Amino acid sequence: MVEKFQKTVDFVKSQYPDKNFIALHEPAFFGNERNYVLDAIDSTFVSSVGAYVNRFEEMMAELTGAKYAIAIVNGTNALHIGLVLAGVKSNEEVLSQALTFIATANAISYINAIPVFVDVDQETLGMSPQSLRDFLVHHAEKRADGVYNKTSGRRIAACVPMHTFGLPCKIDEIAAICEEWGIFLVEDAAESLGSYYKDKHTGVFGKIGVFSFNGNKTVTCGGGGALITDDEEIAKRAKHLTTQAKVPHKWEFVHDEIGYNYRMPNLNAALACAQLEQLPLFIENKRVLAERYLDFFSKMGIQFMHEPQSSRSNYWLNALIMDDLEERNALLTFTNDNGVMTRPVWELMNRLPMFKHCQTDGLENSIWLADRIVNIPSGFRP
Ligand SMILES: *Cc1c(COP(=O)(O)O)cnc(C)c1O
Question: Which domains are delineated in the chain?
């Protein structure tokens, strides 16, 4: 085992020469980042109004093919607003996955709604359409005013699947199930900027898609998020709610409902625009690395997660599937002791104290994967 791990360390290091310590994912700034940020400073428009915010929104709409994109201060808050606009209310339920980053479950909780966790697929690491359908067939019923969970008696208001590590989940099937049941679909595409499913960008399959531009994501602006939609009314509401619900007027300060200070600042948007220009380059670079990893790990007899059928992954974060928990832990220890940063997947949501009371469907694959996933360095190689 140690020999295999040593070879892994050597291989990862060979992909990042001149580095003593290989991080999991580091930002890369070598485009127009400096120019645009200085330009934003010189313009004095550093806060929530400015040319870069508008340009960022145009770039996001163009990239994803969505009609509208709204710049938001971070991905978690974009999810929160997405769920508010989906009509999720306090004490209602939102179907999601246990294998996700905490932001997904936190955003649901900000509305005092309750997450319900269904299983993921082993080949996508994202929500399993089969598990979603089975859950609904066994636990849900359609009533005049919506879909209800027969066990809890609560309305099931929305469904939030996630494209784990940039690998697209079977989002068209999930969208079809949500359509059939009349459940609002909000795609957590925080990790999948530049990932496509059946030639469509992730985030456009439901009514709302959400992205993150946090420091460790494929494209970063320090902190940032975006909400995309084809629905004009949702787009207008998203902009309104994220800008303190201020009624546009030349001088009056009038607000017509409780809003949020969730607008992305122009300073961050400047960075985001420069980074988005680099996206094709980032993805090309990451795809080469993924191909090399696939080739290397296949020969080693270690399972490397590669893009599922009909999809194109951004390979944001590469993942290995080890044989068992013991081998996972041994690899984590060896690599981190030898200058290569690796991480296990997030603890499953239903195992965290805040969410351990939440209903699940048994989560067979999620539990199996949580014991085996190891994320390996995936950042840009100069
Ligand atoms: C990064 C991420 C988010 C949003 O994170 P922010 O740091 O708030 O931008 C949401 N969901 C998932 C799955 C993520 O990985």
Answer: 2-22+279-376 (3.90.1150.10), 33-277 (3.40.640.10)
